[in-house]
Write a structure and sequence with these properties.
The structure holds two protein chains of two kinds. By secondary structure, chain A is of the alpha/beta class. Chain A has six helices and ten strands. The chains are: A alpha/beta, B mainly alpha.
Chain lengths: 215, 292
């Protein structure tokens, strides 16, 4: 689960304070809010990329407020995907496992498995530069899922996609991320994404996160 | 709303021509100046027979190479190549971490340090040489010289070249890292990397073209450095003489032909390095293009 209590953070002249919410383990929560309200900052703070000024972040029951990003066990897909452009798709997906020194055979098996699930097996030897928006999104998702994180944080993963690609990724997220082992927090400003994916809706406005309704 | 008619569209399209021609003329003038200087050098070395008619290309080449066969010039060539290469490596060693630090981190007095890093770029090179000379006459400088001699020594040639060249490499590396999306490194942190691993595995590979450019720039700048080398390391033949010093020494004794020959040698060296770098860049681009 994700549990945030009285979170306070500031970076680059912008800040959030007094943020509290929780997402039960194994659920798929969608966080909505206007552009510039601090959704990305909140996700980056959960990843450990911004230093907390106050409050507590608990992931799967453990207090990770003082832990570095590497030790939090989260998978993060940023809005611009930020794929590693000098590496092949295979190496992008294998990255987290290589850093953690998994065995080569295990890495290969996991990359092939994700390649099939995400339907990018034919792209594994390509570099990210020539990929379409939908393909890049699948690679970014594969990279985040590779080391089997317990918490997946998605920052507007569908924002730059055309409608057919959006529906494909909707299906993909439903099939790959909706299971009891992964808790998902998905940031978007499209109500359609929430309707298609969420079993819990959170709304960020006026500097606070509150429960929303899917209707 | 009015829709422009066909005639107006044609006029808009043709109005680009004067602009492009202006660019070509202005740019072409500078290219012509560079080529004119080089051609003048080559022309100066052309031998003339009694009728004033120029002889064969082979004779021109022989006349160009003749001064380069002297042991002094060969020593200067060797020292230049070695010192420039060491300077380029040292410049990268310092500029990559400095450029990364200045691009990615915020810390107190950053603006001041940024300005200090630009000092070697804006100061006249002679002043750098003089400052190095004074520094090594101070107590700490003399203590260092007891271990490694710099003043009027080969170490001084490298230090003088490095003091100027490194600033250009730092500036290049900072711009390189500024242009790389920092979010990729942040994602790497969430995937299990430490800051150091994110730098080595993500940032540096993405900045490899910048590293190549910074190294080339430092090498080329070191090759042309004259003022600080003359002041700090001197112009002693067979000891601290580099190619720009040779040009100065040959000119000072009135041996203009030899000075021009050395100048052309430097042009050839510079062009070779540029071709090498372009080839390396093109190879890398080709590899990317060939990926399935």
């Amino acid at each position: 689960m994700i549990s945030v209590e009285n979170l306070s953070v500031r970076a680059g002249g912008f800040g959030l304070s007094g943020i509290s919410f929780s997402v039960p383990a194994g659920s798929y929560a969608v966080l909505m809010g206007r552009t510039g309200c601090g959704k990305t900052m909140l996700l980056e703070t959960l990843c450990g990329l911004n230093r907390l000024r106050g409050g507590t972040v608990r992931l799967m029951g453990a207090d990770v407020s003082r832990l570095k990003p590497a030790a939090r066990g989260v998978g993060y897909v940023p809005q611009d995907r930020a794929l590693f452009m000098t590496m092949s798709v295979y190496e992008n997906i294998a990255f987290a496992m290589r850093v953690r020194r998994w065995e080569n055979a295990v890495i290969d098996s996991r990359v092939q498995e994700l390649g099939e699930v995400l339907k990018i097996s034919h792209l594994l030897r390509r570099r990210p530069a020539g990929l379409s928006g939908g393909e890049s999104q699948r690679v970014a998702l594969g990279r985040a899922l590779a080391a089997k994180p317990r918490v997946l944080l998605l920052d507007e993963p569908l924002s730059a996609l055309d409608d057919p690609s959006r529906y494909e990724i909707h299906e993909l997220l439903n099939s790959t991320c909706r299971n009891k082992d992964v808790t998902v927090l998905h940031v978007t400003h499209h109500r359609d994404d929430a309707r298609q994916l969420a079993d819990r809706l959170l709304v960020m406005e006026d500097g606070a996160v509150r429960e929303g309704t899917l209707q | 709303m009015t829709i422009p008619n066909r005639r107006q569209n044609t006029r808009h399209a043709s109005s680009d021509a004067p602009f492009i021609i202006s660019l070509l003329i202005i740019g072409g003038l500078y290219v012509a100046l560079i080529l004119a200087m080089l051609l003048a050098d080559v022309n100066y070395l052309k031998p003339h027979d009694s009728n004033g008619v120029t002889t064969s290309a082979r004779a021109i080449l022989q006349r160009s190479i003749a001064p380069l066969r002297t042991p002094e010039i060969r020593f200067a060539l060797k020292l230049s190549l070695i010192s420039c290469t060491v300077t380029a490596i040292l410049s990268l060693w310092f500029s990559v971490p400095l450029g990364y630090l200045m691009s990615r981190f915020h810390f107190p007095l950053k603006g001041l340090i940024d300005a200090i890093l630009d000092i070697p770029i804006v100061l006249p090179p002679v002043v750098i040489g003089l400052s190095l000379l004074i520094l090594f006459q101070s107590a700490p400088g003399k203590a260092i010289e007891k271990v490694v001699p710099f003043t009027y020594a080969i170490g001084g040639v490298i230090l003088a070249q490095f003091a100027v060249s490194c600033a250009f490499a730092v500036r290049t590396m900072r711009v390189t890292f500024d242009q790389i999306n920092p979010r990729a490194e942040r994602v790497a942190l969430t995937l299990g990397c430490t800051r150091s691993q994110a730098f080595w595995r993500v940032a540096l590979p993405e900045g490899r073209r910048g590293v190549l450019t910074a190294g080339t720039l430092a090498w080329a700048r070191a090759m042309g450095e004259f003022g600080p080398v003359l002041i700090f390391a001197g112009a002693t033949r067979m000891r601290t003489e580099v190619l720009p010093t040779s040009v100065f020494l040959e000119l000072s004794v009135g041996n203009i032909e030899s000075a021009v020959a050395v100048s052309l040698l430097m042009v050839v060296a510079a062009v070779l390095v540029l071709i090498l770098v372009r080839f390396a860049g093109a190879t890398s681009a080709m590899e990317r293009g060939l990926m399935p």
